[in-house]
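Reproducibility note. Readers wishing to regenerate the assembly model reported in the main text can use the exact inputs given here. Chain order matters: entities are listed in the order in which they were concatenated for prediction.
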Amino acid sequence: MLLNTQFVETPLTYNGQQLQAHWIYKTWGIKGNALVAFIGPADVALESMVDQEDVLKKAPIYSPKMVHFIGEWFIDSLNEGILLQHLFTSELYESLWEAGVTGLSKRGNDIYHQGRKASVSIATRSGVSVLMHTAVNVETEGTPIPTSGLSQMGVEPVAFAKALLERFRCQSEVWASARVKVSPRL
Amino acid sequence: MLLNTQFVETPLTYNGQQLQAHWIYKTWGIKGNALVAFIGPADVALESMVDQEDVLKKAPIYSPKMVHFIGEWFIDSLNEGILLQHLFTSELYESLWEAGVTGLSKRGNDIYHQGRKASVSIATRSGVSVLMHTAVNVETEGTPIPTSGLSQMGVEPVAFAKALLERFRCQSEVWASARVKVSPRL
Amino acid sequence: MLLNTQFVETPLTYNGQQLQAHWIYKTWGIKGNALVAFIGPADVALESMVDQEDVLKKAPIYSPKMVHFIGEWFIDSLNEGILLQHLFTSELYESLWEAGVTGLSKRGNDIYHQGRKASVSIATRSGVSVLMHTAVNVETEGTPIPTSGLSQMGVEPVAFAKALLERFRCQSEVWASARVKVSPRL
Amino acid sequence: MLLNTQFVETPLTYNGQQLQAHWIYKTWGIKGNALVAFIGPADVALESMVDQEDVLKKAPIYSPKMVHFIGEWFIDSLNEGILLQHLFTSELYESLWEAGVTGLSKRGNDIYHQGRKASVSIATRSGVSVLMHTAVNVETEGTPIPTSGLSQMGVEPVAFAKALLERFRCQSEVWASARVKVSPRL
Amino acid sequence: MLLNTQFVETPLTYNGQQLQAHWIYKTWGIKGNALVAFIGPADVALESMVDQEDVLKKAPIYSPKMVHFIGEWFIDSLNEGILLQHLFTSELYESLWEAGVTGLSKRGNDIYHQGRKASVSIATRSGVSVLMHTAVNVETEGTPIPTSGLSQMGVEPVAFAKALLERFRCQSEVWASARVKVSPRL
Amino acid sequence: MLLNTQFVETPLTYNGQQLQAHWIYKTWGIKGNALVAFIGPADVALESMVDQEDVLKKAPIYSPKMVHFIGEWFIDSLNEGILLQHLFTSELYESLWEAGVTGLSKRGNDIYHQGRKASVSIATRSGVSVLMHTAVNVETEGTPIPTSGLSQMGVEPVAFAKALLERFRCQSEVWASARVKVSPRL
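Running the prediction on these inputs yields the following structure tokens for the assembly.
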């Protein structure tokens, strides 16, 4: 469960095309399990969305500025991928608490600040891997629903993203280590 | 990933024997994936421990009073079980933040309060299931290392345990739901 | 292995497009593992068939009126999906016996009545789920091979379909329960 | 999913010890996935039972004469094993219908004749395989609950067992074949 | 892990289209796990390649004459498929040593003769199976990098291919047999 | 599939007790997937053997001096473990060829030198891992069947073992890398 991480300085719009097998490898040259972060708008048309619930509700994703995290794990189990996605959301949420932000809450994998939605998250499978996109708002002007973001929370996005990448990489090592140290039970 | 939960009013000492396949079913009559909580001492001799790292370090577990959580999921994958364990630790940690406790930190699956260890957690496999024990101190007198607990945090253990059981049950439903709503990617 | 079932009153032609991930959810709003039944013709062109054996034999599927069952289970294992498909065919076959029909036989997953083929069945994988189509003839006029159907058997299709949905839902609960009650062996 | 089958002429008491990894191989020299049948009493003490539900109910198994089927599949998935167990029960049940027996019904994996229980069935895992025991009464004198058997049904046990072994072997080939002929869906 | 093998006498160009689910079945009528060999050029354009490393390096595959091996296993695990691919490469490599060829070496899954590359190999997943293409040069005129082949090694390709098919089929039986004869350990 | 390797200088008798979960970790402090080598006699009584075929044949293992390799991979799939075992045997076999030894042959996972057995190999599962023991004779005095060893081949055992550990570690990285670079096929 070794994980390679990288913060990409170039601003980039997330439009759903980044949630593809080997996008990280083909774009940034990082091979293997990987988690990259970048900053930019989110603008995902209905036809590029994998969340069929949102497609049914006709709820496209828009935000003027988010910190985006794209993860790819080369495993076969979507169940495991879903759990990794939610572990990432938890680490993100906990990082905000530890940064001193108040008025936070979490429902499922959605993070709220002062009752307004601050994040989006999805995980799915490709034919060779499990893919995740999780993002937290920086700015919120023009979002289709009431939202909050790192600006309102007083959190600087670049340092936050870098620290979260490192935190999740360390936690991934802990999970791998937890796997190998336990004896079985009857 | 349906999960049955129950708070057991009877005080009980955790001595490692509770981490067995069907302990929950045979003791409390709850069938299927289950998470139960009870309050009592922790007293685990080296020969009853599954954490081989602690066995090598000769670090038995003792606490005069903890809230214990025993989980059993009838799945084949230990990897998935390890991730569920860490999701539970995250929900526990977040519950403390949301309760207004300060001075919290987390390293791997260990929760600290004011720099002192507040929790223990382990997950392993039986031949038919994945098993978890996670516990947070209530009192800390006589523990072998510096520890903190819910008393020091000002958190009432029974209400805390009941709320956490319900929170984790709801999150389990969210994860199950996340599994079924996404279309695949190429 | 919880299963949601529904009998759809609207007549519908099965043309192979119904064997798609989330077709049940997007068409009928049923989320999760699901089994739906409807009545209508079967008309599957070669290019919409998943059975490569039939494609090689150039054997398209046609029937003027069938009871169709579409199942989707959000699991990763095609082996498990194939076994679920055959369990469904068995329950269908047994329902006919219990209804007093005579002259029945079964070869693989094909049900025969008085030596004439009465059913079709296939299971495959999408990127996120296992999919099944099983159908039993009601009328048989114009079928490319000698067939029999519920009309010839004297079985009323709507009541039959509803009872079979409920029967399979109950059996699914039994299988889930069988998984969680057994202790392992050496 | 190749399956080796054998009818063992020697009478044998089933006492639970037969449900062990490699019992078939070590006793009858049959290597690999295997299904063997033999005739004899069933006498399983509580401490040899794997069904924890029956253990809790203190319901040991006794029958003066049954046709026993022991199956072992060298697969890792208990879910798949449970489904194979229920497919076997279905084939057994259908064989009785096809033999002309009337008054049959099935609940879960239990077969009833004229409202009286005629069979037992369990599946579990060893460390290297999935194991099944399914048996149908021949005689019923002295059973702890009202039961029926092949004698009451007018079915000759040896021929019945041999035909069922062959039937299940053929069906196993069909399932293996179903796995390899389907193209995937999106 | 039963494997059907066949040497196809007709010369054929490998252009990447042969690495598709059911190509063996639809082209040669061989159903199930299969390994076929044929002789002909390799000419794979970048857009038909599955190796993203080679795509990034813009390294298309060309050889005037190779012995090609296409394998398809109907399993769900890509990890297992990758290991099967490397076992095949090992058997190929060992066959050359046993044939008396000298100056051989192996790096990863690439075989070298007198320091020049003699083989290519790739494995991937379809939605229902794991697919492999492995090939060894016969002639080497016009290859984009320094290569060697069976001609330079003095190995007759048809007999070599037939013997390797049979060798791998036998080894597959040994692996299946190794799976079923071992008792588990604590 | 990261692998930690170590050559243990202390001579040690292999008696079957080394094939246990966490034996490497508890004895040599190496955590995670690991492969260790040591030199010493092999003396495995029937009751400590996992190969049920040898147990049936009453064929205990004895050799006065072997190079032993014990591997442990923390994976759930025994199938994958069996393939890793055979990949190790292949690398061992190829190392001998590359060292200039002649008169070698391989049947299944047994290596022969001048028609005499030179190696033993077994893989099985614990509740948390897959375990392997593979060993090649150094001396052969007193073995129950005709054998050959590294002495007869003119191969120095310590350097051979160290090179093979490193070779297999490198190959493990190649397999991990092969898993992550391929795009899926339809």
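We highlight two features of this model. Chain B touches chain C through 21 residues (CB under 8 Å). The radius of gyration of chain B is 16 Å.
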